[in-house]
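dumping this here so i dont lose it again. seq + smiles for fe (ii) ion
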Amino acid sequence: MNHYIRKLISEHEHGLVQLGFLDDATKRMIERGFSEEDFSMIKKSVEFISKEIREHNEAEESNLFPLLEKHLPQNGPTYVMRAEHRILWGRMDLLMNSVNLVESDKNNMANFSKLRTNALDIINLLSGHINKENTILFPLAERVLNESELKSLADLA
Ligand SMILES: [Fe+2]
Ligand SMILES: [Fe+2]
């Protein structure tokens, strides 16, 4: 497998681990109420997604997608992936707002459920997005990119 694509897949794996933490910790807060431990886990995973996954998505958009777009229709899979990145950032703002709400009122159950709803939204969106890239887009890239394009990507890894 191309080294750059392998790097993207390993970044996906780190993202999925953080989504798992976000899922567990938001679920526990609904079941047991606020805990500093769960809340700090939630904040760490939200920060990871805001920073690391955002940088990852930007790297896909500037390194991988332009090469693919030489071979694929303009409104093809990279168009869909770019659109999903934008949707993700919009929904991350909602998640970050609900994290701030919980922080400002740690005993408000309605805030926990808003946080849980927004967390599940991100978990579904991002895990679905990652799954599409891993199973459809990346294998497609290895088929359609030529040797020198694959080499230029591998040099970035
Ligand atoms: Fe992506
Ligand atoms: Fe990705």
